[in-house]
Amino acid sequence: MSALDLVLDPLFRLPLITGMAIALVLPPIGALLLLRDEWLAALGLAHLAAASALLGLALGLPAVLGAPLGALAGGAVKSFTGARGNLAYGFMILFGWSALFLIAANTSLGATLGHALVDGQLYFAGALELIAALALAGLAAAALPRLIPLLMRARFFPHDETANRLPAHRWHLSFDLLTALAMAIGTATVGLMGAFALVLVPAWIAFRIAPGWTWTLVLCGLIGAGGYLLAYLAALTLDQPFGPVLVAALITLAATVEAGRGLIGITRARLRRKQR
């Protein structure tokens, strides 16, 4: 059976659409996190999401419903305490990692399911996961156009909010909760490291090559969707776990782009020498 036949198979249709929605949402959020120097947020919230997802499974809840509880709690605490930068998220990683494997060790689920959350459960995505992913995509499409100008102004003109007595906590909290929800649903579907890779790598690539902010967001979406589709086809064809293949595909794209930038730089330098 060819890769195209596998993709069109009804068994894999829901996972494909579910993951594509996640792959389109997480990269633009990653661009904003890089802009705020808070890229570690993705990994911290993902660990909390994985721990609460496993706890939810132990209580009989689907992972996609349990995961948001821990991530939203972490995002809310971070926002209300006014923490900025990556330090708060570093502690989230430690707490979430510890909780994840303690829950796995002390419930009937065992460590195998804990590792499954880390690796990703996209192939088991059903109607509930699809609804959650599409709802997340709709929420992001409605919220990000309003939040982006406010977050950019806060980043480049930090004293403007204080000088004009703006209710900045509203949009910072909104973005923190949106990030937490996105990481929770992403972790419950494409896995902890897969979700983190979708946040970090497309945004990093876009920051390296995009001529402006609009192009940064466009490239984030294209790289995230393209890398996801490449990984999905490769994982199905080669019968490999999806999460590690997704991470490998995105890293390969990043290395290819960086190598291309290096070759372009060398070519330009040689042309300048010839012109002299």
TrEMBL record:
Pfam families: ABC-3. InterPro entries: ABC_BtuC-like, ABC_TroCD. It is found in: Cell membrane; Membrane. It is a multi-pass membrane protein. Keywords: Membrane, Transmembrane, Transmembrane helix, Transport. One of its GO terms (cellular component) is ATP-binding cassette (ABC) transporter complex. The keyword Transmembrane applies. The keyword Zinc does not apply. It comes from the Bacteria. The chain crosses the membrane at residues 12-35, 42-67, 87-110, 122-144, 177-201, 213-236, 242-264. GO terms for biological process: response to zinc ion; transmembrane transport. Belongs to the ABC-3 integral membrane protein family. This is Zinc transport system permease protein.
